[in-house]
Write a structure and sequence with these properties.
285 residues, alpha/beta, Rossmann fold, 3-stranded parallel sheet, globular, binds NADPH dihydro-nicotinamide-adenine-dinucleotide phosphate
């Protein structure tokens, strides 16, 4: 594999732990059930739903898709979430995005009970990251942390550059890594517009990119020996590529995640782990 980080191997380890924990929960009479709420039709979301269902069922988690008509209003959707919050047979809730225009996404995400919020999008769960005690944190952010941990790289004092500042990837990743005493810079569209992106990227001992623009980062910008984690997923013709120019970057990086096969499988496994964590907490209530 050379300097490639194999996300499938990391994911398999997580799934083995998940299987053990599910067996133990089942032995205590607890069955896991994940409900995915989808509002309206969305082809991209349909692909995720299919994959989630397959992964959950393989792990022994019941998966139910609740499809709600696109015309629903925020208040009515809130009451549907409330019903799931109060249903003891439901141990995890996922809200499929995007939601139709006009629905207050943040309000809906905030209404998912923090103990059932397996995607870590409720402000309470995001807040636990700020406290340095991540619990049900966003799956992709946890996946990035898991991948870095798997490399054995010591983050203390290292220059980490996070490109992208979304609520579910860039911001939580930065907080998770700053707690390991890395020096973390967060870059975004403002950095690019100011013409400063290259300068930041060239400094990175650990570079994480989560933007969604194919080949945004030329391989020539990568510092010799850097660890590169490419979160981006972009379709170019009939190929899926990341945000980093892979062929040239891999010549300079000490370790690099491929796309596909890097962050994606780890994120999927972390979702299962979050479903287990949620059920373990609910058991204690
Ligand atoms: P968002 O669109 O929410 O965030 C993208 C971020 O990139 C924003 O902070 C945006 O800044 C910034 N940005 C946009 N253009 C530039 C630029 N030219 N230079 C620097 N920064 C820029 O996306 P997500 O965080 O949800 O996802 C990012 C990528 O990761 C996507 O390709 C997505 O498909 C992928 N992804 C992969 C997952 C996996 O499991 N592998 C899981 C989740 C996401 P601003 O908002 O200011 O424009």
């Amino acid at each position: 594999m050379g300097n490639l980080i194999d996300g499938e191997i990391i994911a398999e380890k997580i799934k083995a732990e998940v299987n053990r924990d599910i067996t133990s929960l089942n032995a205590d009479g607890i069955n896991l059930k994940l409900v995915a709420v989808q509002v309206g039709e969305n082809p991209a979301s349909a692909v995720y739903v299919k994959q989630q269902k397959k992964n959950c069922e393989k792990a022994g988690i019941t998966y139910e898709l609740k499809t709600i008509p696109a015309e629903i209003e925020t208040v009515a959707l809130l009451s549907k979430i409330e019903k799931l919050n109060n249903d003891r047979s439901v141990t995890g809730i996922i809200l499929q995005l995007p939601l139709p225009e006009g629905i207050d996404v943040k309000r809906i995400q905030s209404s998912i009970h923090p103990f059932k919020d397996v995607e870590g999008v409720n402000p309470a769960n995001l807040g636990w990251i700020v406290y340095g005690k991540p619990s049900l944190a966003p799956c992709t952010a946890l996946a990035v942390k898991e991948i870095i941990d798997s490399t054995g790289v010591d983050l203390y004092g290292k220059e980490v550059v996070m490109v992208g500042h979304s609520d579910i990837v860039g911001k939580p990743v930065a907080l998770l890594l700053v707690d390991k005493f890395a020096t973390v810079s967060i870059c975004h569209i403002g950095t690019s517009k100011a013409g400063m992106l290259e300068e930041h990227v060239r400094r990175a001992d650990i570079l994480i990119v989560a933007v969604g623009k194919a080949n945004l980062i030329p391989g020539g910008w990568i510092k010799q020996g850097a660890v590169v984690i490419d979160v981006g997923i972009n379709r170019v013709g009939d190929k899926i590529v990341g945000d980093v120019e892979f062929e040239t970057a891999k010549e300079k990086a000490s370790l690099i995640t491929p796309v596909p096969g890097g962050v994606g499988p780890v994120t999927t496994a972390i979702l299962l782990r979050n479903v287990v964590k949620a059920a373990q907490w609910l058991k204690k209530q």
